[in-house]
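Predict the 3D structure for this chain.
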Amino acid sequence: MSKPPEPHGAASSRQAQRSADMRRRLCQAAIDVLCDVGYERLSTPLIAARAGVSRGAQTHHFPAKADLMVGAFRHLLQSWEEARVATFGTTDPPRVTLETYLRFAWREIFGKPSYVAALELMMAARADERLGGQLREALDEWAVRRGAVWREVLRFSGLRDDDAFQHINMSLLRGMAVHRGFNHAESENEAVLDEWIALVRHMGVVPPAP
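Done. Predicted structure below.
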């Protein structure tokens, strides 16, 4: 006995889910390859092979390399947002101390190889007007969420909303990420973070540990 025809809406929904899964798979593969070989040696065939998909399937979802790079970048930004929600249990900006947020940001974002890969991609985009424009658009959208989080964290830590202080913290974490490849041990960056937290605690920004 033949099965009754599937409702059109259910079939469309499944197809949309398969398409979204394929795009995520390709984006994650692009990030992984970028981490492994760097932007100069990265190629779309390498990404397709890492994702385990055909070149035709890849170009169906991302017709050009720049499209795939932008998709991968947005995928990475979304993974950072998901890590924040998973850690603090809320989609709203968390009410946590600066120390707590700095340690989270280092552990889940800046201390991972994917962050340096993202920096490398942004540097490469300087010579590619199309890629650069799309990456800046993605970053501008991300910066709105990032700014809301930092403002809440700084207010909760007893510091007024200060853009300069936010940028100091971001610069510290970025510098640690870049220097990570030159360190002899992971503990070196942890020590830097400890010293910075001790300094801002002395300034009265981070409440003393209980």
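The chain has a mean pLDDT of 88.
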